[in-house]
Amino acid sequence: MERKDYRRCAEVARHREKAELVLKNANVVNVFTGEILKVDVAVSDGWIAGIGSYEGLLEENLDGKYLCPGFIDSHLHLESTLVTPSELIVQAAKCGTTTFIVDPHESANIAGAAGIDYILGQTEKVPANVYVMMPSCVPSTFVDDNGCDFTAEKMKPYLGHPRVLGLGEVMDYVSVVDGDAGMHEKLALFEGRTLDGHAPGLGDDEMQAYAMARIGTDHECIDYEYAMKERRLGMTILIREGSAARNLDAIVTGMVEHETRTEGFCFCTDDKHIEDIQRDGHINYNVKKAISLGIPAVSAIQMATVNAAECYGLQHLGALAPGYQADMIVFDNLEEMNILDVYHRGIKLDAGAEPGVLQCPEELKHTVHLDTFSRDSLKLLKPEGPFHVIQMQEGQIVTKDVVCDIPGKKEFTADNEYNKIAVVERHKGTGKTGVGVVAGFNLSGGAVASSVSHDSHNIIVIGDNDTDMELAVKELIRTQGGYTVVEKGRVYETLALPIMGLMSDAGYDDVDKTLKKMIRKAHEMGVPETMDPFITLSFMALPVIPELRITPRGLFNVKEFKLCE
Hints:
Elements lengths: L2 H11 L5 E11 L6 E9 L2 E6 L3 E6 L4 E4 L1 E6 L8 H9 L3 E6 L2 H7 L1 H10 L6 E6 L17 H4 L8 E7 L2 H5 L3 H9 L5 E3 L6 H9 L4 E2 L5 H9 L3 E5 L7 H10 L7 E4 L5 H7 L2 H10 L4 H8 L1 H6 L16 E4 L7 E6 L2 E2 L38 E6 L6 E6 L13 E7 L8 E7 L6 E5 L8 E5 L2 H14 L2 E6 L2 E7 L11 H17 L8 H6 L9 E4 L2 E4 L4 E2 L2
Parallel strand pairs: 1-4, 1-5, 6-7, 7-8, 8-9, 9-10, 11-12, 12-13, 17-20
Antiparallel strand pairs: 1-2, 2-3, 5-14, 14-15, 15-16, 17-18, 19-20, 19-22, 21-22, 21-23, 23-24, 25-26, 26-27
Helix pairs in contact: 3-4, 12-13
């Protein structure tokens, strides 16, 4: 708080001046003590000036309604919502999320600094607080074929940026625990700041070495036992509930059963589609679900506010107390938590507000550098004996490495039980195409393809026949990225994502309408109802999540951290 703001707020706090705004007779959630106090909240210059009994130039009687701090999403990728950053922020803010801790490594993997600058520029003037963590693993591993190598040297110009908080999720755990010079240069660059982690499935020894590097968070815990192993090492657990990865139920159920203290636990969405946000909500959904599973309401609110603020050093956010930014949520009761109003810096958000249109640099709309593609690239010869198959898991983004026999004599023949999956390099036109077999997707009569494939974002395609898979890839070359569903030799529908092959500038209503239609069709074609076909597919190329992945260079064994022979 600047001195001039402090002086005005101090006058209000001492009842020498009226506040600009007073929310009267509110049941205020005090995240420091866990109390709920019936008081007034005085606001001036966007700051909370006092809690108690106050008069204001403008007064609003909440008549016993509840008031808590704005929620914080402690880790997300704006690109994964499929719409422009400003559109996502406006929609999520209506759900009570007023602070977003963003990792723009999707954009960085495609366009490097230009991608990061796009995210920063798009979120400069939105009705929320948007902070950025510098992408740590671009590319994520040695096996990735992406569009840019983002080194420690390239990070240095961002160190003084007021909205850059620390280092984004460190996915390449092997480089961390082996003491790789390039990785540890990045860690040292952000010494004293928050270092976000990404550490699924580590053994006890590797986990200790990983935490020793001062990596402070992880959002990849899928069960309570693993979360507690990391928590005992001092790491903060970011409980994720997104569109594909839904870990809240398992972790929170364990916390309730074992009466685990909620300090050191926060919430995040990581990757959540716009249609899921509009239907279910954002961090408010995490809070309500945690309450329904037995976490006390005030504790769930603390996890969504002060815990996250303290983790990321945001001393002016996460609480309703003098000197804190006036980001506030008005809601009806502690059980259902229906949001009535949201304030950012003391200004009530307009429920009908639409985001402003911010132009995207033209070069970021032409990032699929792939001229031709032939189904010949999709051939997969059947080896002698058993074969490694990617077994998908419903409700998770982890996979199983299943060794089994597969259909076909000399060449693999896909069907609805064993689909073919391929990743086509699209950044430099190298012609690399990795082909494998996947079980659990169950697609029949066509193909599904996406240019969103974490984190290198090459074109990934899955199907039960090569003809439809070829057509799907060619369709995404035509649209410069997107999602597509092909059925029996024709394109059923395509959602174009021309901004880096990740986002649409058509508006969230059109994206929502098209995506719902495509998801419904994919489920009709056999994809399990509990599986988001596009988000689940997008993670099959990420070689830092166990156990088996597909890359443009072939199958990758994550546990052994090497390409399959």
